[in-house]
Design brief:
With 352 residues, the protein is of the alpha+beta class. The protein is built from nine helices and 16 strands. It has helices at 15-29, 34-44, 56-61, 76-81, 96-110, 125-136, 219-237, 255-261, 324-330, and strands spanning 4-9, 50-52, 65-72, 114-121, 140-146, 153-160, 164-175, 183-195, 204-211, 242-247, 277-280, 290-291, 295-296, 299-305, 313-319, 345-351. Helix 5 crosses helix 6 and helix 7 runs parallel beside helix 8. The longest helix has 19 residues, at 219-237.
Length: 352
């Protein structure tokens, strides 16, 4: 059954909790534990820096900047279903209470304007967003699409509704009985935004997120899923530039990713003006986003290319992924500091 939620989270409704949270943080600030937390955080932040890219002169002039973070946060129901994958990790680091604390601390520090979440369990979403509101002082809203079938997780796009106006959104089910390869419960979610304070310039953009099939042997299914996403995005975005994020369960040189970038990920040509294809926002050489029998990259942030859009998205900075060596040194995740089995990705864009 189609299920798409649009929900606003008001700070007023949680003012009592916010005051208690601030009070608790202030007490902690005068205690002896904070230096230890700082040292721990610094050790995990190596190779995780915001690195400037692109035209920094444009960054200085632009008033249409926004920060996107994409994060597969590991649904608790999936963790419990596949508990054997986390043998060797102390169970105290695998509880949702502990993992949520770690995820929230990381997201509050990253402070995105738009947050794309994969494996977001439906009954954890409202509380997570509420606590983000308390942590960063923003007024947040979200759209959500649960996977089809019996799964309890899905994709969410959380955004600062004081900064952006949500113009439209669309949930896409990647299950189609008429297409043999589209027989899985994966989904995608699109949202079209406009900056509230510059409405006279009508600069709009689309943010999309998805989580493709995991099965390493079924690249054909993932290609079919990418194809469906591209079809739906083409009609949804019209002449609007797109940020596409997610866990694609695909290596950079795999067929699904080649289909997305059209083997042309860094070139804009007149011949491909009407074709929808993307460029991967590079998160660093020799880096990884998760462990799948080895430390690999399967999570991406991409931007659309081509002349079909009235405006363009220019990347200004990227949140570098940890190096593979750093991943090996850190060891298995989730752990005492990191709340998921994936690393978060981030990028700052400007609309020109």
């Amino acid at each position: 059954m189609y299920k798409s939620l649009l929900h606003n989270v008001s700070l007023k409704a949680t003012s009592r909790i916010v005051r208690r949270s601030v009070s608790s943080q202030e007490k902690g600030a005068s205690g002896k534990r904070k230096p230890k937390a700082k040292a721990m955080e610094a050790s995990y932040d190596r190779n995780r820096r915001w690195t400037p890219v692109g035209d920094q002169a444009a960054a200085g002039r632009s008033t249409h900047k926004f920060k996107v973070v994409s994060y597969n946060i590991l649904a608790q129901d999936l963790l419990l279903e596949h508990f054997f994958l986390y043998v060797g990790i102390p169970q105290e680091f695998l509880t949702w209470q502990r993992r949520q604390q770690n995820v929230l601390r990381e997201l509050i520090k990253l402070d995105p304007d738009i947050l794309c979440l994969q494996e977001m369990q439906f009954d954890h979403l409202a509380v997570l967003v509420q606590r983000l509101c308390m942590g960063n002082g923003k007024k947040l809203a979200y759209v959500y699409k649960k996977k089809t079938g019996h799964r309890t997780d899905g994709c969410a796009i959380v955004y600062d509704c004081s900064k952006f106006e949500l113009l439209d959104h669309q949930a896409v089910e990647l299950h189609d009985q008429a297409v043999a390869l589209l027989n899985r419960d994966n989904v995608a979610l699109f949202a079209r935004f406009r900056f509230k304070k510059q409405q006279e310039q009508q600069k709009e953009f689309v943010v999309a997120t998805t989580h493709l099939l995991y099965n390493p042997k079924r690249s054909d299914v993932r290609c079919a899923q990418v194809g469906r996403i591209l079809e739906e995005l083409h009609s949804f975005s019209t002449d609007t530039p797109i940020v596409l994020t997610g866990d694609f369960n695909s290596l950079p040189d795999s067929s699904p990713i080649k289909l997305l970038i059209d083997k042309n990920g860094d070139v804009e040509s007149e011949a491909s003006a009407e074709q929808l294809h993307f460029q991967i926002i590079d998160s660093g050489e020799g880096t990884a986003s998760t462990y799948q029998n080895d430390w690999v990259i399967v999570d991406y942030i991409l931007r659309s290319l081509g002349a079909r859009s009235r405006h363009k998205l220019l990347p200004l900075s990227v949140y570098s992924l940890p190096s593979i060596n750093r991943c090996f040194a850190t060891g298995l995740i989730p752990n005492h500091h990191l709340g998921s089995d994936h690393y978060a990705l981030g990028a700052v864009f400007t609309v020109v």
